[in-house]
Amino acid sequence: xxxxxxxxxxxxxxxxxxxxxxxxxxxxxxxxxxxxxxxxxxxxxxxxxxxxxxxxxxxxxxxxxxxxxxxxxxxxxxxxxxxxxxxxxxxxxxxxxxxxxxxxxxxxxxxxxxxxxxxxxxxxxxxxxxxxxxxxxxxxxxxxxxxxxxxxxxxxxxxxxxxxxxxxxxxxxxxxxxxxxxxxxxxxxxxxxxxxxxxxxxxxx
Length: 205
Ligand SMILES: Nc1nc2c(ncn2[C@@H]2O[C@H](COP(=O)(O)OP(=O)(O)OP(=O)(O)O)[C@@H](O)[C@H]2O)c(=O)[nH]1
Ligand SMILES: [Zn+2]
Prior knowledge:
By secondary structure, the protein is α+β, with helices and mostly antiparallel strands. The chain has helices at 6-12, 21-35, 47-58, 66-69, 119-130, 136-151, 165-168, 187-190, 192-204; strands at 73-74, 84-95, 101-111, 116-117, 133-134, 155-164, 179-184. The protein is elongated. The two termini are 35 Å apart.
């Protein structure tokens, strides 16, 4: 994570440069000491380096632009005009309140107006938004917004079903609770039969 993209800066509301890798590693040493261990002991000596590297994977979504991922659309689909749906897209995110993992799946559908996108790009968009500090509600809405902006479809449906480790491994400690969030736009909002079809597909996914 060496550069802050304009997209990331806008989202974070910052324009100043980010801390150096060395400063980030020093912050990890501080947290290790605060937790009660010795950051200088052999087993922990390389941990700050590893943690910073892991963070650049877990938060790689600040570097990526979802609209660039959705930049290429196709119109030659032989008149195909029904719902396109991807189920069980893995979601590996972190809650913005505790930086604890959010693990689950996203189900995403859209009703094309004209343009469609490569199906892998939908999974990429889920990944880009999930690899940021998030709330599940924001992530759900952002995925729907990005697809709407890129394709101007007749409607979008997004359902995320996830477990928040801030709730399952600490705090209120309910290990079995799942959180489900949905965003429906356009015809998914106005046509109950279409929304029902989406829900039924999710149930059998
Ligand atoms: N709405 C929403 N809440 C979330 C999400 N991720 C975590 N939270 C909640 O954010 C809240 C933060 O509450 P606070 O009272 O500020 O923090 P806390 O003292 O750590 O709360 P507890 O988790 O209840 O121990 C908690 O209720 C979390 O369950 C999310 O994606 N969406
Ligand atoms: Zn949390």
